[in-house]
Amino acid sequence: MITPSLDACGAFVSYLETLFALSMNDLHTMINDFHGDMRTGLSGHEGSLKMLPSFVDKPTGREKGAFITLDLGGTHFRILAVQLDGKGGTTVLGTRQTAVPRKVMQGRGEALFDFMAEGMDAFLTKRGFERTRTYDLAFTFSFPVEPTGVSAGMLIKWTKGFTATGVEGKDVVILLKEALRRKGIDCIRVTALANDTVGTLMARSYRDPSCDLGVILGTGTNACYREKCAHIARLEGAPPEGFMIVNMEWGNFDKVRRTCYDRDLDAASVNPGAMPLEKMVSGMYLGEIARRVLVDAVQRDVLFLNAAGALKRFKRKGSLTTPEMSLIEGDDTSDLAGVHDFLKQKGVSGSSIEDRRLLKRLCGWVSGRGAGLAAAATAAVVTWMDPELKHRHTVAVDGSLFEKYTRFSAKMRAVLTDLYGKKADNIAWVHSRDGSGRGAAIIAAVAATASPQGPGHSSKANFP
Ligand code: BGC
């Protein structure tokens, strides 16, 4: 049995703990820097926050209609048929969800859009849609898109592991329409292009007027909020007294202190240099950061000194996932029996209770920093709109990290309380389930209200 050098061990453990901790000063600096980059983005200058206009404002709650939504944004691709009742209620009449295979994410762009058109064809057939009618479709495409109108926009750059060729720099609605045409589908009219954050905000604010922020904490991360048109310099000709939802693309915020683990992860990613905040916060990356720390600790003889197989099992990229981290952090038994079983299943035998405790702490440091950064980013947006936090703000949130990760939302709330004390109660995070899909239908309805055909025209196309 090898015994670790307690001094060396203790020093490395405290080093790690400090490395991932966020001080009050860090949080306040981040909020200030965020405001600076929001200002730059809104003024139309190049900055880390893109601040993209969505061409829609919040709904009134009276929008009506039946819409199909198509949602591509991460590991899954979803189609929904949504009915809006004009009284703040939405009903999902049908749904189809498919995993997006890696070869489709990273192959040819045309094949990716054909994959979506095939999904649509199967959905229309299965649900008995009449091909002789016309149905309005809202396309939720959750990547940075430079919009040129409510139903047109060009992909700036892929994120979240997508690399499909021939899409960056192109109008994704045109690519979708071409794929639908190739598949012989001509009963679909694309009337809205949405980001998932905007959908999430719309879905909640359809029935809750206090909602002015939409946040995604899932495979990727991002937020949108309500801004005065007069502040969006690139919006020429918009009525200055009006408001519009702005997609911030906050995952690209770059004024964050990165560790050597973050830098190595970035260098090994498919988009080095891009999305620094997303790579420290979101579900696609947390597990990988923790894995890199774990491997370093094993190599320094601080962790799993007497447990066989640890280095081999965790050496491979992706061999510790974010859901697994959540499971480790969620084990509250005194002997961390769940962590023990998890390690055994991974092929690591003979872990000591100290190993398991350290592994749990390590995951907590990485996820705690992610939650702290997400909370500070939210705080920055809320205080941009309301510097004294005088009003109530509902933040609609969706995504697996928020929904499923052990204590992630509790950690975010704790950071807000540290920052603002009692006033933090004015910020309420609410889970907006399926927000991006249902919300896209609301965007299409808002767009229809402004269209020459008038409000709710698509409700005539009743769904089967
Ligand atoms: C994308 C955003 C999206 C976010 C959450 C990011 O990678 O750039 O557009 O909203 O992921 O899905």
Proper CATH architecture of one domain? 2-Layer Sandwich
Mean pLDDT: 93
CATH class wording of one domain: Alpha Beta
Q: Termini, distance in Å?
A: 69 Å
**Count of alpha/pi helices:** 16
Helix content percent band: 40-55%
Summarize the model shown:
The protein is of the alpha/beta class. It contains 16 helices and 13 strands. The strands form 3 sheets. The chain has a 6-stranded mixed beta sheet with strand order 1-11-10-9-12-13, sandwiched between helices.
Describe the model.
- This protein has 464 residues and is of the alpha/beta class.
- The protein has a domain at 57-195 and 435-459: ATPase, nucleotide binding domain (Nucleotidyltransferase, domain 5, 2-Layer Sandwich).
- The chain contains 16 helices and 13 strands.
- The strands form 3 sheets. Strands 1-11-10-9-12-13 form a 6-stranded mixed sheet, sandwiched between helices.
- Strand 3 (76-85) and strand 4 (90-99) form a beta hairpin.
- Helix 1 (6-20) runs parallel beside helix 13 (353-385), helix 9 crosses helix 11 and helix 11 packs across helix 13.
- Residues 452-460 have low confidence and may be disordered.
- The structure holds beta-D-glucopyranose.
- The site of beta-D-glucopyranose has 17 residues, from helix 6 and strand 10.
